[in-house]
From TrEMBL:
Role description: Catalyzes the condensation of (S)-aspartate-beta-semialdehyde [(S)-ASA] and pyruvate to 4-hydroxy-tetrahydrodipicolinate (HTPA).
Subunit structure: Homotetramer; dimer of dimers.
SMART domains the record matches: DHDPS
The EC number(s) this enzyme carries: 4.3.3.7
Gene Ontology process terms (BP): diaminopimelate biosynthetic process; lysine biosynthetic process via diaminopimelate
PANTHER family: 4-HYDROXY-2-OXOGLUTARATE ALDOLASE, MITOCHONDRIAL (PTHR12128:SF66), DIHYDRODIPICOLINATE SYNTHASE (PTHR12128)
Location relative to the cell: Cytoplasm
Catalytic activity: L-aspartate 4-semialdehyde + pyruvate = (2S,4S)-4-hydroxy-2,3,4,5-tetrahydrodipicolinate + H2O + H(+)
Keyword terms of this UniProt record: Amino-acid biosynthesis, Cytoplasm, Diaminopimelate biosynthesis, Lyase, Lysine biosynthesis, Schiff base
Assigned protein family: Belongs to the DapA family.
Main location: cytoplasm
Name of the protein: 4-hydroxy-tetrahydrodipicolinate synthase
Length: 291
């Protein structure tokens, strides 16, 4: 089971709006050098709603080629269409993804029974390990404990990316942690609290700009240095909050560009930050000497 900091990788764009695959490859090399423990591609932070199927496939191919087995690569294969998610999962499995991230259905929200059937059908279709993605702020569905308990028994469902921000729910999910099921923080502002109830790591937006520090925070906690991990969580908290002052990934890409990482802009409907929120982000970056 993967431990540590898994970056929820952004998608770099050129000025004309096309994907900068060369820059994408460079980011993979940089993350390996900076001790990132795993790479998630095609997640929320990657702006997947605006990517074509061909672009998604090429992104995964580039990342797998550049990673070269040096770090595990997880591919987001979720959809609110169960059959489409199965097709994507099978495709990404064949391409060589080490694991899959499957989000709960959004917009056409389903019942508890529908959630169970959705996840189980996807898990039945592949041999690759699956992480469930719980992010009610995006999907409108907060996966109930009873659903997670049932699907966690499936041999291919090995964990949850918990991004509800609800520590009470996360603590209930922690009851399921065992040899075949783990939990990963999906909210950088509560990385250490999630670790404190048994989490194995984080799937992080922060790691896009502070990969080594995010790795060190998680590693410190897992190695028993709770004070160091706690101090790092607190040190970066105001900056983390600034990274979500507007819709992700707008602030993280602005921050990366200000820090000289040159990842380009966005695809509509996402757009550059407003001047007032960008000023807040810049102030927090100055405090951490990120320029």
């Amino acid at each position: 089971m993967l431990q540590g900091s898994i970056v929820a990788l952004i998608t770099p764009f050129k000025e004309d709006g096309s994907i900068d695959y060369n820059r994408l490859g460079d980011l993979v090399d940089w993350h390996v050098d900076q001790k990132t423990d795993g790479i998630l591609v095609l997640g929320t932070t990657a702006e997947t709603p605006t990517l074509t199927a061909d672009e998604e496939e090429e992104i995964l191919r580039v990342v797998l080629d550049r990673a070269k087995g040096r770090v595990p690569v997880i591919a987001g294969s979720g959809s609110n269409n169960t059959q489409k998610s199965i097709e994507k999962s099978l495709k990404y499995e064949k391409m060589g993804a080490d694991a899959l991230l499957v989000i709960s259905p959004y917009y056409n929200k389903t019942s508890k029974s529908g959630l169970v059937k959705h996840f189980i059908q996807i898990a039945d279709s592949v041999e690759t390990s699956i992480l469930i993605y719980n992010i009610p702020g995006r999907t409108g569905i907060n996966i109930p404990y009873e659903v997670m308990e049932e699907i966690s028994r499936h041999k291919n469902i090995v964990g949850v990316k918990e991004a509800s921000g609800d520590m009470a729910l996360a603590s209930r999910f922690a009851k399921l942690i065992g040899d075949g099921f783990n939990m990963y923080s999906g909210n950088d502002d509560i990385n250490v609290p999630i670790l404190s109830v048994g989490g194995m790591g984080v799937i992080s937006v922060l790691a896009n700009i502070l990969p080594r520090q995010t790795h060190e925070m998680v590693r410190a906690y897992l190695d028993g240095d709770v004070r160091k991990a706690r101090d790092m969580q607190i040190k970066y908290l105001d900056f983390i909050n600034a990274l979500f002052i507007e819709t992700n990934p707008i602030p993280i890409k602005e921050a990366m560009n200000m820090a000289g990482l040159n990842v380009g802009g966005y695809r509509m409907p996402l757009c550059p930050m407003a001047d007032n929120t960008k000023a807040v982000l810049r102030t927090e970056m100055e405090k951490l000497a990120l320029f």
